[in-house]
Every structure is written in C-alpha cells, then in structure tokens.
Design goal:
Layout lengths: L3 H33 L4 E2 L3 H10 L3 E2 L5 E2 L3 E4 L8 E3 L4 E2 L3 E4 L4 E3 L4 E2 L4 E2 L2 E2 L5 H6 L5 E2 L2 E3 L4 E2 L4 E2 L4 E2 L4 E2 L4 E2 L7 E4 L4 E5 L2
Length: 196
C-alpha cells in the first residue's frame, strides 16, 4: 500500500503531466491554425480555447477566464481582434459570437449556455426589406459591462449595451440597452425589477 508521501508524489506528477499535455495541445493547435486559418468553432478545453483566441488577436484576460466548448465564431476569418474577454469571465458553452463588429465582455461577465451575441444585421440582400428596414441593418458593437449575467439561450442584438451587474433572463431577446443593476426578461426583453 502506497504511503502518503508516494500519493503526494503521484498527484504532483499527474499535475505536471496534465500541464505538459495542455502546453503541447496549445502549441500544436495554434501552429496548425496558423497554417489553415483561425477555427470557426472552438471545441477544446478552456485554457486551449483562450490561447487560440489570443493567437488570432482577441484580447483575453489572464485571470479566471473560462471559455467552455463549443464556441461558434462568426465573421472571424481574418482573426478575432473584435473580441475582448476580460478577467473573471465565464462562457458556458454553445455560445455564438458574431465578430463582424466589436464584442466587449468586461470583468466578471458570465454567458449562460446557448447565448447568442449578434453585431450585424441584414435581410439576405432582399431589396424590399433592406430598403424598408434600413434603420435595422448594419454593423454595431455590443458591450456587456462588469458583472453582468446573461442566462441560457438569451439573444443580444447588435448595438446593445448591457449595464453593470445587470441580469438578462434565459431566452430573452435584448433589442434595447439594459441599465445598470436591472433584471430584464421576455421577448422583447423588458425591465422586471431593479436589483438593489
């Protein structure tokens, strides 16, 4: 039966091997994607996903950033320079990020599973709709301020700012700015209450 000292050495060795394997994965995948171009889907462990984003121009914090798979990246063929993910952010997977315009996630933002963030809108070049709804077309960035929580399957449309410490309910469609310290829900999202 192994001693406590042997158990500790085995645990230390496992951690070292795990770190080494993550490092090898980061180097190998970034090298591969430098040849074939940035991936449209991030489907690796969170430290590898963050490394790939950084390698192609995204600004990703170094402390407590968790980017769980998969993350679908639209409009990032030339890289991910339109994406900023600050320290303490959590992407819970199955997230769709439209990088046609800027997406900024400030410190401590969390995205629930299935959250979609759009930064552009078109009507598949339908001349009737594009003319009549021209005010809804174009590219506009999305800013999600510090500490905001976007719950599962919410949709954030282009040009929206989500306030500091705001909460967007699951399944909500946000087509208007959300003030600081507020809870919004519904389709379209409406103020439910202030968070005090």
């Amino acid at each position: 039966m192994p001693s406590k000292a042997a158990d500790k050495e085995i645990t230390t060795l496992r951690k070292y091997i795990q770190k080494l394997l993550v490092l090898i994965a980061k180097i190998s995948l970034v090298s591969l994607f430098k040849i074939i171009g940035p991936p449209r889907i991030l489907q690796f462990g969170w430290p590898v996903n963050a490394t790939i984003l950084r390698a192609f121009g995204a600004k990703v914090g170094k402390n407590r950033v968790y980017i769980h798979s998969p993350v679908f990246l639209h409009g990032g063929r030339q890289g991910y320079s339109n994406l900023t993910i600050s320290d303490g952010c959590l992407l819970n997977g199955n997230n769709f990020l439209d990088l046609t315009g800027n997406i900024i996630l400030e410190k401590g933002v969390s995205l629930g599973p299935g959250v979609t963030i759009m930064t552009h809108n078109r009507y598949n070049l339908n001349p009737f709709l594009e003319e009549r709804l021209a005010h809804t077309c174009g590219v506009k960035g999305v800013l999600i301020k510090e500490g905001a929580g976007i719950k599962a399957h919410a949709l954030i449309v282009h040009g929206i700012t989500i306030g500091k410490n705001a909460v967007v309910a699951g399944g909500a469609v946000v087509n208007r700015d959300v003030p600081d310290n507020c809870f919004v829900a519904g389709v379209p999202a409406k103020l439910v209450k202030e968070i005090k």
